[in-house]
Design goal:
By secondary structure, this protein is of the alpha/beta class. It is 29% helix and 21% strand. The longest helix has 20 residues.
């Protein structure tokens, strides 16, 4: 691999990163705020790679880098040709577990007159750690995908600290409706079923369903 070929590899990597950063595809791999560092990195790689495509020196034909460097193109081509989808029911079914304890133990009150749209992770944390039972007698709306196991079915969402590599499952058991197919995104409205166990609780919370609506995968699939 001479300098011109190496510049081609760097340019292609930068182009793939640029495509991810200016489209919604990056949301399948990283948190939304990381779009901007990704964009800056893509621009830097393009600035490094593009000049080498056109500035060829006479000694370039004798300047060879290890052939294995071409292997860097494999993940780039995978992103350009076969972009993997966001993690879904397959991954969720294998990582179902109660939510970790919250950093804070205080919870705000939820309005009683309206349907409260909250994240699945928030529902789980309130159900398992809020001794004030702020979910009690409240209508809650959750959005996620269906996951089934031997005990029933759940509405779930993957959460991540920085990227898909550290994603984990947040899930709520559903009671009162037939399960959709695995992976189907749904919007549900219902009420929390208090398990009457001592706090902190280490089980999956349950929601009594009042309505369920099948929807398309949202723009941001992760919480």
């Amino acid at each position: 691999m001479n300098r011109q070929a190496a510049s081609c590899v760097v340019t292609l990597i930068g182009a793939a990163m640029l495509r991810l950063s200016i489209t919604d595809e990056h949301l399948s791999y990283i948190k939304p705020w990381m779009q901007y560092p990704l964009l800056v990195s893509a621009i830097v790689l393009l600035l490094l790679g593009l000049p080498g495509l056109f500035l060829v020196k006479e000694d370039d034909e004798h300047d060879h880098q290890p052939t294995v460097a071409w292997a860097m193109l494999v993940p780039v081509l995978a992103l350009l040709v076969i972009a993997p989808p966001s993690l879904g029911s397959y991954a969720a079914a294998r990582t179902l577990r109660p939510a970790p304890p919250p950093a804070e133990s205080t919870f705000s009150k939820l309005p009683s007159a309206d349907i409260n749209k909250i994240k699945i992770g928030e529902f789980v944390v309130r159900a398992n750690y809020d001794t004030g039972k702020s979910l009690e007698d409240r209508q809650i709306e959750l959005t996620g995908f269906a996951v089934k196991d031997s005990k029933g079915w759940y509405i779930a969402r993957m959460s991540m600290a920085c990227c898909a590599a550290d994603a984990f499952t947040q899930a709520v058991r559903m009671d009162g409706a037939e399960a959709p197919k695995d992976g189907q995104w749904v919007r549900v409205v219902g009420t929390w079923v208090d398990s009457d166990k001592e706090y902190p609780r280490e089980d999956m919370p349950t929601m009594a369903l009042e309505s369920i609506e099948q929807i398309n995968e949202p723009r941001q699939p992760y919480e």
